[in-house]
């Protein structure tokens, strides 16, 4: 992940989830890994000690993740629930859309890229569909570039 100075748009839930994970990594996981390193050191020769190597690798991963989460919190712009309106689509909106050609109806929550989870219908405001939906109103039809050309989606409903 490139850590540039751009903002990270995130919902309050997403912000709190990052804080929770960071707290867990700093207070629990970091100590577990340190204990594993200490125990592995007691096995002797570190040059042939797989447990030590594995624990050191995990320590590197944990420290990297802590650094990444701290950076996300630093650049986060939290979308307050009361700022989510229903006149048009924005980050935090829940949107019901219909593809009239396929007679397909779906509902998505538009979230910041850090919270994106397409399997759970949470799509990023930076994704092709998410960015096309931003600013659209109920009744609008938005066009989205897809590998086969273009798909059209009609906005059926916008809610919080």
UniProtKB/TrEMBL annotation:
The keyword Cell inner membrane does not apply. Necessary for efficient RNA polymerase transcription elongation past template-encoded arresting sites. The arresting sites in DNA have the property of trapping a certain fraction of elongating RNA polymerases that pass through, resulting in locked ternary complexes. Cleavage of the nascent transcript by cleavage factors such as GreA or GreB allows the resumption of elongation from the new 3'terminus. GreA releases sequences of 2 to 3 nucleotides. The keyword Iron-sulfur does not apply. Belongs to the GreA/GreB family. Residues 87-159 form the Transcription elongation factor GreA/GreB C-terminal domain. One of its GO terms (molecular function) is translation elongation factor activity. InterPro entries: GreA/GreB_C_sf (IPR036953), TF_GreA/GreB_CS (IPR018151), Tscrpt_elong_fac_GreA (IPR006359), Tscrpt_elong_fac_GreA/B (IPR028624), Tscrpt_elong_fac_GreA/B_C (IPR001437), Tscrpt_elong_fac_GreA/B_fam (IPR023459), Tscrpt_elong_fac_GreA/B_N (IPR022691), Tscrpt_elong_fac_GreA/B_N_sf (IPR036805). Residues 9-78 form the Transcription elongation factor GreA/GreB N-terminal domain. This is Transcription elongation factor GreA. Gene3D superfamilies: Transcription elongation factor, GreA/GreB, C-terminal domain (3.10.50.30), Transcription elongation factor, GreA/GreB, N-terminal domain (1.10.287.180). It comes from the Bacteria. The gene is greA. It comes from Acetobacterium wieringae. HAMAP family: GreA_GreB. Keywords: Coiled coil, DNA-binding, Elongation factor, Protein biosynthesis, Transcription, Transcription regulation.
